[in-house]
């Protein structure tokens, strides 16, 4: 599984337009092959900063979405509302065991 976080800073006057765009497309994104989860977060200290948090079966599934007609419509429209460049990164659950100060697994 791949977890994708995209942090986006919007011009304050564009927030309602972004929210309309997100709500109009979120169900379509959730139904893309390989998408297992999608939600929208808002920064608690900066009202114009939002993050999408999505889970994908694989990097290939995410890339297939990024090549889709849906992404080709949603992303350019979203980018037009930005006040700053987005920050996007992919992560996965860590499988490293925790070690104590002696280097022994716990």
User: Strand order of the main beta sheet, please?
Assistant: 2-3-1-4
CATH architectural group = 2-Layer Sandwich
Q: What portion of the residues fall into strands of 2 or more residues?
A: 25-35%
- Give the N-to-C terminal Cα separation: 25 Å
Q: CATH fold name, please? A: Alpha-Beta Plaits
CATH class: Alpha Beta
Give the topology string: H per helix, E per strand: EHEEHHE
* Total beta-strand segments: 4
Structural class computed from helices and strand pairing: alpha+beta
Please indicate the count of domains: 1
Most strands sheet = 4 strands, antiparallel
Protein name: Antibiotic biosynthesis monooxygenase
InterPro entries: ABM_dom (IPR007138), Dimeric_a/b-barrel (IPR011008)
Keywords: Monooxygenase, Oxidoreductase
GO molecular function: monooxygenase activity
What is this structure's SSE topology?
Elements: E1 2-10, H1 15-30, E2 35-42, E3 49-56, H2 59-66, H3 69-79, E4 82-91
Helix pairs in contact: 1-3
Structure write-up:
It is a single chain. By secondary structure, the protein is an alpha+beta fold. It has one domain (2-91): Alpha-Beta Plaits, CATH 3.30.70.100. The protein is 33% helix and 33% strand. The chain has three helices and four strands, in the order E-H-E-E-H-H-E. It has helices at 15-30, 59-66, 69-79, and strands spanning 2-10, 35-42, 49-56, 82-91. A four-stranded antiparallel β-sheet has the order 2-3-1-4. Strand 2 (35-42) and strand 3 (49-56) form a beta hairpin. The protein is globular. The two termini are 25 Å apart. The mean pLDDT is 93. Residues 2-92 form the ABM domain. This is Antibiotic biosynthesis monooxygenase.
